[in-house]
Amino acid sequence: xxxxxSYLLIGLLIGVVFATTGNAFADxxxxxxxxxxxxxxxxxxxxxxxxxxxxxxxxxxHVPLRAVTDSLGASLKVDGKTIQIESSDNSSSKQxxxxxxxxxxKYQGWPVSKLEERKSELEKFVSDTEKDKENLQKSLEKYNxxxxxxxxxxxxxxxxxxxxxxxxxxxxxxxxxIAKYKTELEEINKAIAxxx
Length: 196
Prior knowledge:
Helix content: 55-70%
Structural class: alpha+beta
Order of helices and strands: HHEEEEEHEEHHH
Largest sheet: 3 strands, antiparallel
Number of strands: 7
Shape: rod-shaped
């Protein structure tokens, strides 16, 4: 019974290949005729068993390609001597292929889309912080002018000193943040370049 099933399966495989690919595989298939099927294996795709089994002939596994691609939601098309398999969402598979490339830095494993999103955020942070820095520098200039104007008023000078000190601290923090954001931007640009 097992041998009949094996021969039937080989016959079905030969028929499918002949029907779909023409003479391209004819010599290879003819060499399989008469050979013993060494084993039959169940096939699971993402944990689900296929209704068709795989066979092993001459040490090579032959799986039911149509059943596998159907279970993965991919399309199978025979075009001349080429078998084309495409996932249901070709654009996401291209993105996945891009994401598989490695980058060995802080952003290892990040997809390009997430890297580009972070890059936009950082560019906005740099732009906004540089505007803040300009305003802080203008405030310091204003305090210096007021210091000249109120040179005899100790209370006013104390207030200006306090404002100046606070503004200088915030300015220093802004400069530190700009440097940090720019360093991070360089790293993100390297990561994006390595994935494209």
